[in-house]
Amino acid sequence: MKVGDIDVQPVIDGRILSKQRPTKPFPSPGSPLLDDQQGMVHPDGVVDSTLGGFLVRTAGHVVLVDAGGGQRFADGYLTPKIDLSDPADPVAVSLRTHGLTGDLAQEIVADLESSTRIEQGQLPASLEALGVDPADITDVIFTHLHFDHIGWASAAGAPFFPKATMRCAAADLEYFLAGPDEELYVAALFGALTARDRLGPVLDRVETWENDQPLLPGIDVRLAAGHTPGSSVVVLSDRRARALLLGDIVHCPLELMDDDFNLLVDHDQELANRVRQAYARELEGTNTFASAAHFPGLQLGRLLPGEGTRRWSFRAA
User: Fold this and answer.
1) Is pLDDT above 80 for 78?
2) What are phi and psi of 199, to 5 degrees?
3) Which end of the chain is more exposed for a tag (fewer CB within 10 A), N or C?
4) Are the beta carbons of 38 and 294 closer than 8 angstroms?
5) pLDDT tens by residue, 247-259
């Protein structure tokens, strides 16, 4: 779609399926609120999340906002077996750190082992379909540094985008390069490289921001900490047109539609809740389009006003 003269297109890398335990039940089948999710939420509570990024063409720059999960697994992805009795099992350690033990921990592990699935590796082909070579990308903007947003920063130990400047929040770079416990959990569960390993080949070309600021013509960033310490929103604007790329401050439209609904997957849950609700207020009933990094097909849409619960409307293709 166009935001003024700025061109924005989804770049699909794959998908993650995982069972979620949100703060309240998902809407029942047949509900218009569930219809608004465009199949993202399955009846059994599995959430089908798109992986990828957004290609943004603006004056003199070809920009990728977020970079998917990375290279395809050679043998296909298999959910690892989790041993809650093993004091060194990183998933078990993470669950205990968050106070999740006993029967609840067993239920969570059963959910992970039965429903978690990841497919990745499509981003190069998606770029090619858009007529873009990796060498054409001038800038990569990371909304945050989780593995499924930085996956194509490097491939096989070398920069995948040979001419691109890498841009992220300083708070996230500091946090993730320190190797936090959550990285061990993610690496074990998804077979992912840590941020330290994935970004190692491109650290000499990373530029950071510490405040809300313009980055490139028509592209600003706003800090929106909560999901991660440096989680950020990318704002596209040209004349009166505006669109927000929300990163992971929300994972499905329901989190904008209902203040009491969220998926509980944030570094600082209280702060993340406040940020999410503030953006819902900003978007509700306006002509500002938005998308988040896991919305179905990375489509943009609008938040429609409502009494108690709002509605989400994806932009017609």
Assistant:
1) no
2) -90, -10
3) C
4) no
5) 999 999 999 999 9
Question: pTM to 2 decimals?
Answer: 0.95
Backbone angles phi, psi at 152, to 5 degrees: -105, 15
**Cα torsion 190, 19, 179, 175: sign:** positive
DSSP state of 204: G
Give me the half-sphere count of Cα atoms (radius 13 Å) on the Cβ side of residue 165.
10
Q: Please compute, for residue 220, the number of CA atoms within 13 A of its CA located in the half-sphere on the CB side.
A: 13
Q: Which residues pair with 54 in a beta bridge?
A: 10, 65
Beta strands per DSSP E along the chain: 2-3, 6-19, 46-58, 61-65, 117-119, 139-141, 154-155, 158-159, 165-169, 206-209, 213-216, 219-223, 232-238, 241-245, 289-291, 301-304, 311-314
Task: Encode pLDDT of 166-188 as tens digits.
Answer: 999 999 999 999 988 888 888 88
Q: Is the pLDDT of residue 222 over 80?
A: yes
